[in-house]
Structure prediction request, 124 residues.
Amino acid sequence: MKALLVVAHGSRREASNEEVRRLARRVKEVAGDRYGWVEAAFLELAEPSIPEGIHRCLEQGAREVVVLPYFLSAGRHVSEDIPAEVEKARQAHPGSRIRLVPYLGAAAGIAELLLVQAALEEEG
Prediction:
């Protein structure tokens, strides 16, 4: 089974963290059979942490965990901090496949998504 870990920054505002958790649940619904488990995790200020999120995915039976940074640009968190946390998890779970994929802002469809979102404002 493959799991998806959606990694956000984390916020002191719990409602923002819960928004990310709701997103993870929606992604699971849309993903169908592509991912047997979808979890949210946070770099800082909220739980679970990235290593804890990866551990949860593995506890659910995942043989592969895909870590997707829910960030729009490749700042220090994306380029250094998240890869370091993922590497810690790889060290802790040497028999598991843990893949870090490009951050959300690097997605090919992000420009189109921005235009769709802008059009919603025009309609309202």
Observations:
- The chain has one domain: 2-123.
